[in-house]
Amino acid sequence: MGSWGLLSISVAARLTESPIMANSGLWVGVLTALTALGASYLTSRATLRAALAQARTTERAQALREQRERRRAAYRAMMDRVHAFSAITWEIEDVEAADGRADKDRLLARMCERVGPSIADMNQAMHEVRLDGPAEVSDAADRVRDLARRVQALLRELIGTDAPEARDAYDAAYRDFRAAYVEFIGLARGALEVEGEDEGGRS
Fold this sequence. Notes:
- This protein is about 90% helix and about 0% strand.
- By secondary structure, the protein is mainly alpha-helical.
């Protein structure tokens, strides 16, 4: 029994023992008022607890939405940097179409000059993904960046050589890079979908 219930019984007992209140209907009204007051107090406490729980739920849902938007922005930035890097590597077709070793090397050198800054941009985007997580998406972004560096190294090795082995190594590295990027996209999409489900379940 709550404190208000005990107080009501105690007051009622004292009133019934009083010679003034004995055999009077007044104490019934007093007891009824005290009981109503106690019930109102308990109801108010329950209402307050429910309001606090709802506030915490709303705050949690808002935090999840903000986290989801941060991650979406970080993932999109990483994808943009990968696309910029890929656009440079696709110029290898122009190298193949060029006439003479000098023209090929000139195009390759220009590609190397541009691919370095694009990897620096990708590295910055990768760190943003690392900050916002989750870990599996961060690891996937890290692998994409590492394989981009591998492509960069093998691109430099194409300068001054017509050896098919060099081109084969470059193509293999680029395929690995693309596969890692596809994996990153899948993990990023999965992370955003799970967050969306969590947010919906808590709202």
